[in-house]
Amino acid sequence: MASASFRMLRAVARRPLGTALLSGSRFQLVRSLTSQIRLDNLNPEVRDFVNEYTKQLNPDDVYVCDGSEEENKKLCELMQDSGMLRKLTNPAYTNCWAARTDPCDVARLESKTVICTGDESDVVPEGVRSGKAPNQLARWMKDSEMDKEMATRMNGTMQGRRMYIIPFSMGPLGGHLSKIGIQLTDSPYVVASMRIMTRMGKEVLATLDSKKEPGDFVKCVHSIGRPDPNDDMQVRKANERLLTWPCDPDRVLIAHYPARNKIVSYGSGYGGNSLLGKKCLALRIASYLGWKEGRLAEHMLILRVENPEGKAKYFAAAFPSACGKTNLAMMDASIDGWKVKCVGDDIAWMGFDDQGQLRAINPENGFFGVAPGTSKKSNPHAMEMMHRDTVFTNVAFTEEGKVYWEGMEEELDFTKTKVITWRGIPYWRPGMKNIDGRSMQAAHPNSRFCTPVKSCGVLDQEGFDSPNGVVIEAILFGGRRPDTVPLVFQTFDWKHGVMVGAAMRSLATSAAADLGKKKLLHDPFAMRPFFGYNFGKYLKHWFGMEERGKGNLPGIFHVNWFQKDGDKFIWPGFGENSRVLEWIFRRVEGDDTIAKKTPIGYLPTADGINVTGLKGDVDMKRLLDVPRDAWLKEEEEVRTYLEGQLGTDMPPQLLDQLTQLKQRLQQS
């Protein structure tokens, strides 16, 4: 018979979530939250922005967030009372909360994410514009047309709700590479999450006021949406969905206006669509600003690697979502004396200083990590830090009230405890099937933990707090490749490295809701969903950065932890990846004894990777193989893709690098 705690969990999981946030009966509770910042104290530029959208969105009232602990406590209590959040009461957790979204609002929606400018060539390369290939990069819409489309959704959408004003900084306050944003939203879930993911509050407003241009901020507007009152089907669907999570998934639209420094998002409460400081600002808008300002905004982790002698170097690494960035950034090195510390796990803003050194900051203030696959084995530091001040979304629970997701099977005895799925289905066991015969997941594949950086036990605090950023000495590209691509190789130079970044391919992951799985996708620079401007111009910008480096360019490498023999990974991964980082460290130091030249770049020699203490029978020869025919096919497919997408926007340097690769392979 189910325990009392399990019956309570099951009842909470099945309880209607979110209806109270839109109803008058609970709205009085919101009014008990009193802002410490008056609207008339905002600077004129911010006030004008707020007034413009207050007229359009028509909220019942407006609240300026101060970012305080007291404010966050009251907001979480509001959401707990409404059913949108529930507090984790198991003593293993301190100030942790859980949310369950509508099943139709669980991930980024790339097909609904648009870059809006006056001319299509600003965003879409010539190859796509001329019909040479279907668009696989940024989607475009004329800005004036998007204005009309958004008006049909946004006009009056906040009626009956409160509009929250969130002042936030991406990066250290006042830092050279940092940017300030102001987000308007009707979702307290977004407020609580943005407090974790950004530096948020009244200090940001003070910093903005002190700038030479107090209007220099990114304008962010978000609403969870409401149905079109003239569409009976929309109203019916919305009435059903409001029982679980307020959203309007049939009309989701996320619009970016780079030239206006503005983002407008409608219809989704999911993090990637609603936390506008994250991918929307930190990559799409910031990549455009980086192009204009001579900098880079990249989908990269930043880590600090220290050798046994105490010498440290900083690396940046670009992997697609759900490809192990967080695990790498927080790894426990398996080789004696080596240490890895984390600066950031997802995004890097980079620029060259006056000495030609590439410096990087992590613009975020928290981790928005994919939960499945995270475990004590893969990332013990992440598992430890998420026990404090964390918001979980769409995870499963044990009857004791502990979080659970796929990847934690070895940590749970299913004969002694029960699991309730993210959809509220009790008595789940590994191997259970849905009624259609498909495997039933305990947690959603894109379930998340949202945790503050300060909770990370391996945070490089000095590097994270540095307003000028850390010096990057190596850039890594990588993805999920079951074959062809070796464990690690180094490019010959910067231009070759740009080509390797442009040629990245990886198996699709669960981070985007509208892409098929098990499909090998082209994902240049791991930025395919995040380009804020024309990919051809982006590539020219990367090639042009070579001149800014003044001879101090970081080395560029490619890694692949995911080679398979049948269903089994050949390389053990996780902490053993430190052996690859050691090789990269030594290469950056100038050690030529551990590398050999091959057609695709410099690979480790037979004894170049330190395998002392490596457990199991690991086939290093296979891991470092460069199959000629497979690589010739790789070059052909990459060339076809890039020529199709870019057309006449193809930088000549890129075409030259592809030709050189083909020639080297043919001559090998």
SS class: alpha+beta
Total E-strand runs: 32
First and last CA, distance: 68 Å
Average pLDDT, rounded to a whole number, is 92
Helix content: 25-40%
Can you tell me the residue ranges where pLDDT is under 50 for at least 5 consecutive residues?
1-31, 512-516
- The fraction of residues in strands falls at 15-25%
Q: Please work out how many helical segments DSSP would assign.
A: 20
Identify the overall geometry.
globular
The largest β sheet comes out as: 9 strands, mixed
Radius of gyration: 25 Å
Task: Provide an overview of this structure.
This protein has 668 residues and is of the alpha+beta class. It is 30% helix and 21% strand. It contains 20 helices and 32 strands. The strands form seven sheets. Strands 1, 4, 5, 6, 7, 8, 9, 10 and 11 form a nine-stranded mixed sheet that branches. Strands 12, 13, 14, 15, 16, 17, 24, 25 and 28 form a nine-stranded mixed sheet that branches. The protein has a five-stranded mixed sheet with strand order 2-3-19-23-18. Helix 4 (69-82) packs antiparallel against helix 7 (188-197), helix 15 (494-502) packs antiparallel against helix 16 (535-548) and helix 19 packs antiparallel against helix 20. The longest helix is centred in the last third of the chain and has 19 residues, at 628-646. The model is unreliable at 1-31 and 512-516 (pLDDT under 50).
What order do the helices and strands come in, and which of them pair?
Elements lengths: L3 H11 L9 H8 L12 H14 L3 E4 L4 H14 L2 E3 L9 E3 L13 E5 L8 H4 L9 E4 H12 L7 E9 L8 E7 L2 H10 L1 E2 L1 H9 L7 E6 L8 H10 L11 E5 L4 E5 L4 H4 L2 H17 L2 E3 L1 E7 L5 E7 L6 H5 L9 E6 L3 E5 L5 E4 L4 E5 L9 H6 L5 E3 L2 E3 L4 E2 L14 E2 L27 E5 L8 H5 L4 E9 L9 E3 L3 H9 L2 E3 L12 E3 L12 H14 L6 E5 L4 E2 L2 E2 L8 H11 L6 E4 L2 E4 L15 H4 L4 H19 L5 H16 L1
Helix pairs in contact: 4-7, 15-16, 15-20, 19-20
